[in-house]
Structures are given as structure tokens and as C-alpha cells.
């Protein structure tokens, strides 16, 4: 069985719940005492798919305006972008569109995109409907998920499974042109398990000129 | 003197070696108490803009250590920045006052008007940026008046410094493109208030850098700085509350976590050995309960206590550091106001809540620092250092009663040569926030009188209603003491001498007497 390793960047406006979602996934708990991210935070996690193992290195970026110019340092080497917006704030959904344009402009290689509408528990305050979001997701070749970090019903898990599956597909599709996506067969991966990955910006792109973002995985919709 | 045995203060001074905590080695820049104030006062209007440092420590450092060709820096987004969301979630720092009347006009709200210390920040163009006790956009008119006052006096080629009306002081600081104003009913002196405003300014520089701050206003005089500061009001709020409670700021000193010197050395050495090979690492700072456990520095570079205070403020106000490794840009205004350092920030372990900051000028070394941190923690665990840190963190600070000084209630001891201070635990009556703040206020008054620019004093003995205060400054230390109200002078002096002996005996545990380098 193959083990692959990839980098994930989480992008989205301030306060949409990026940190909550990743914390929910990693700790399976809801942590009320989270403050705004300062700079960026780094997580790793392993996901077992039926097809194989995926090791994710995740950068949770800060949405505050003052950190905006640092985002390229994190998305430049990413294989997956989780684009998170707040279902109760239409402006945060609009911001996703400028993120996608920025990614298209600055990232040459193929990237898995996962669109995440968070705070689905706030049903009555909702201003972005599922239809609109999922249409937009299709138009950029992303899968679409709705999550609630407060009362999770499996949506959070589905986001990370989609990221892992997307990476897996990517590794099978374009073997030669992968950038910073590492594929190991199981034995090598054990041997190399602790060699050092590169820093956010030190790795140079092995450019794959296609801008065909996206994965062709059917979205793991939650109940 | 009634008691012939009681030594005079000079006898105590004369005792050799009684300057507890003194050391020739230090990692902190030692400062004069009113450095900021004097700098403010001596700046003429014209050189004010110029003086903001023109040299850059960070680029110097980067030059020094750049052997390998520099890796290209982050691609700057060509995309125009997305507009901020319409409904910026400005953190609401109003306490639960009668919010309704605040909504309409804070100036008509008696609770708001009665606040002991207001802080306002506005741009030179008069645009509101921050208000401590209400949302700043309700204060457009008030800030307009402040701006008018400042520019009116400026037009006469002068600077407005302070206005005094009854028990209220209005203090102004004009720095770079910003105007900072405090309206204070506390007993703090003008220099002390200037110092606090300067800290607030430095906090803003710490999140934006001086150069970015200058640039945005050069591009647009009318710029709305709140756009860049959203999320950082929290840091300013916290800093202001911190300064109301912590003597560290007016003392210009740092408090250390008490530790056996062998343990502290083991911790420092672990950091030195693990990080020694990582290039471009400038400071490694370990904080526990917001006290300094150790600080390892690159040779040649020192840290200013004011920068360390901002780091302490950042750590204390950022819950999000606790659960995860962060990679955070930090500007240290005294170190280099024009550039960011990059900080690997993490807590040592779930079972050891001490915060380690590894500060570098190289933004590409996150993963090496992350590895190093892992190794440091493993080693500290093996050598029982984590346990030692925990033990000290969990132990209540010793009180003067426990030291065997029944007539002494509390004390601040600052060692000048190392910019470190020590204070015991609070004991009755100083057990409520109000009492602690009142005590701090008394210390600040003494501090002001000792350092009054026109007539500095060496010794103050003051019998008040609720306590007797003694303050004493020598070339080696500053001492601020609180006694029972009816203590006699000889008894007080006697116990000072006992206290100094005790601190001397404990100095290796209470202070950091060496200054490890990478
Ligand atoms: N009701 C509800 N609130 C949420 C949810 N997720 C996050 N929040 C709240 O939204 C606020 C912001 O959450 P964060 O995770 O810090 O947001 P962020 O996107 O990481 O913000 P930055 O780090 O500043 O970019 C917090 O107060 C959370 O309590 C959710 O699913 N439902
Ligand atoms: Mg966050």
C-alpha cells in the first residue's frame, strides 16, 4: 500500500472558524477558548483511506488583514487548499472568490480545492444557500462541504477525507509532475518517516503548467 | 534615634556585597526609568519623524549570516487585496455598561465618563483608531477635538504635552503618524502616563512595523488603520490591563521564575545545545506564568525589557498558542522597529504550560525549529526539568511573613545591573484587585518621586493611614517597601536589612545571573 504525504493550506476570512474546524478534527472536541490565529499554525495528521495512507501537513493561516501578505508563503507549496467561509456571512463567501483568483494567478501546479461552508448550526442566520455554494464549487472544480465545529455531524471529517482522497487521486493522475507531494511505498515511508520536510517557502516549484484545479471525487456529503 | 542598635540606612548600604542579584552578565538592556519620557521631551517636532530608527538590526543580521544565496521571498500577491468584510467584527471591549446610551453618545454616559483611565488613539488626520472603554467610531467628534488641539499647538511650533484639570490629567503623545491620548484620574504621574502611551504605540508597531505604519499614511493620509488592526485591539486592551496590574512596566524590569540554578542552567544548556546549529536564531525565550525561565541569545544581541514585555503581553493574551505550534511574525520595536522577526511559538507540553519562543530572522526555518523544540522537550523531560518548572509554577510565591519579616507586608526589589525584579506574594490586606491596584499606585507615586527629573530623591519614608511606605534607591538597586502603618523607622530599617540578606542568600534562585548565548 502506498503512503503519500501532502501539504494543506486553510484559507478564508477572519473569524469564519478555520481554527475551530481543524481543532475539531484533530481533537474531536469543541474548544471554546480559541483566540484569533496569529501568523499561522501548523498541524499534522494521518488519514487512512481504503486505498492507502495519507499524511497531511496542515497550515492554518490567520484571516486578519495584517497577515494577508504572508499567505503566499503558505499556499505556494500546498497541494490542497481548504477554502473556508462562514455560512452566516455572505461577505466571507465573496472573499473565497478572490482567494481562488489569487491562487490561479500565483500557483502553477495542480491543487486540490475543497470549499467549506462553516457554522451550519446557525440555521436561522444563514445567508449563503447550499445551492449557490455548491454551484460555485463545481465551477472551480472543488468539492463542497458544510460543517459545524460546534455540533459536528460528520461534516468536519468529510472535509479532511476529501482532502486526502483528492491528494491520492492527484498522485495517481500526474506522477511525474508532482511538487512537494511525496509518494512512498510503505517500506520506504517507514524508513524515511522522520526526514525533514521543507519549510513553507524554501521549496522550489517543479511547475506543472496546468491550471486544472480540482478533483473528481464525489463530495462526501454529510447527513 | 530611640533604638541605638538600629542601623541607619547608610550602615545597610555600607555592608559589602549587599546588592542582591547584581551581575556583570546580563541579557537585558538596562534602562533608566524615564528613558521614554526624556526621549519624548527632548525630541523636537522636526526630528521626531527622522529619529525613528534608520538602521535595521534585522537586515544587519541577515547580511551577517547570509552565506547561502537568499531564497526568493514570498510571492507578493498581484491580486488587489480583497475588501475587508462589510461588517468587521470589531471586538467589543466595552464592559457591560449601560450599552444603550453608549451606542448613542458615550459622552453622555456617566459610567463611561467615570472610567479611571481612558486611552484614545487617532491618526494625525483625526481619524479614530482605538478607544479603551467604548467603540471608537462613536467618538469622531471627541477625537476631532483632540486632533485640533494637537495641531493648533503644533502650528505654533510647540507640542502639547499635558493638560491638568482638577483630578484629571490629559496626556498627549504624538508619535510617527499617530496621536495617543490618555485621560486619567489615577495618581500616576505624567512621565508614567507617557510611558504607558509609548508602550501602546510600541504594541502597534509590534504588529505592523514602523515602516508599514509610516508607509500606509504616506500613501493615504486618511487611511483607516483599523483595517490593519482588526483583531489586535485585543492586544492593546490586554496590555492596558496588564500595565494597571504589573509593576514590571514602570520598573522597566523582568521577573524571573524562581528555580534552582542547576535546573535553570540545565534548561539553558539544553536549548543552547539543541539550537546551537540552527543559523539565524536570535533569541530563545522560555516563559512560565509569564515569568522568565531563561533567555538564550545570539552573541552581540540583547533584548530590551520593553520588547520582552510586549512578548509577555502577546503570550498572555493569545489562548490559541496553547494548543498548537505557531509561526508568528513579531516586530520588536526596540530591537528593530522596521522589520519582523519570525517566532516559533509553542507550549512545552500539555503537562508543562511554559511557553517557548524561538525568534529568528529567517522565515524558512520553521521545520528545523519545530524539530528542535521536540528535542528540547524530550531532553527536559528526561532530566526532570519539566517537573522543576511545574513545581515552581504551582507553588505560591513566598510572602514576607514566611521570610520572617512580620512588620513588612510587601516589597518590590529591582536589581539595576540586570533589569530584573523580585516581589513576594501578596498577603492581606492586598488580596483583592482593588487593593492590589491601590498598592501599585502607591509604589508608582514613590517611583515617581524617586525619579522626579527635577529633584530626584534617594530615600523616602512615608507614614500613611493604611500603611507605611519606604523607598530607597542606590547605585545598585531600587527598593519599594510596604509596612504595617505603625512601624517605627528603626524597625523598618532593621527589616530592610534582613530582607536584603535574605534576597542575597536566595539570589541564585530568584534571578538569572548569567547570560547564555548560542
Ligand atoms: N456557531 C458556530 N460558531 C463557530 C463555529 N466555528 C467557529 N465558530 C466561532 O467563530 C469564532 C471564530 O472562530 P476561529 O476558529 O477562531 O476563526 P478563524 O477562521 O480561525 O479566525 P482567524 O484565525 O482570525 O482567521 C469563534 O468565536 C468560534 O466560537 C461553528 O461551527 N458554529
Ligand atoms: Mg484561526
Automatic annotation (TrEMBL), chain A:
Gene3D superfamilies in the record, alphabetically?
P-loop containing nucleotide triphosphate hydrolases
Keyword annotations for this protein, in alphabetical order, are:
Nucleotide-binding
Q: Matching InterPro entries, A to Z? A: P-loop_NTPase, Small_GTP-bd, Small_GTPase
| Entry annotated with the keyword Nucleotide-binding | yes
What CDD domains is this protein classified in? Rab
What Pfam families does the database record attribute to this sequence? Ras
Family membership: Belongs to the small GTPase superfamily. Rab family.
What name appears for this protein in its UniProt entry? Ras-related protein Rab-31 isoform X1
Species for this entry: Neodiprion lecontei
Gene this chain is encoded by: LOC107225517
Automatic annotation (TrEMBL), chain B:
Q: Fetch the InterPro entries from UniProt.
A: FUZ/MON1/HPS1_longin_1, FUZ/MON1/HPS1_longin_2, FUZ/MON1/HPS1_longin_3, Mon1
Q: Where is this region: Disordered?
A: 1-24, 37-88
Q: Name one GO biological process term.
A: protein targeting to vacuole
Transmembrane spans: none
According to the entry, every stretch annotated as the FUZ/MON1/HPS1 first Longin domain falls at 117-239
According to the entry, every stretch annotated as the FUZ/MON1/HPS1 third Longin domain falls at 408-507
Choose one Gene Ontology CC annotation of this protein and give it. Mon1-Ccz1 complex
Per UniProt, residues of the FUZ/MON1/HPS1 second Longin domain are 279-378
Similarity-based family: Belongs to the MON1/SAND family.
Chain's role: Plays an important role in membrane trafficking through the secretory apparatus.
Q: What is this protein called?
A: Vacuolar fusion protein MON1 homolog
Its source organism is Neodiprion lecontei
Gene behind the chain: LOC107228118
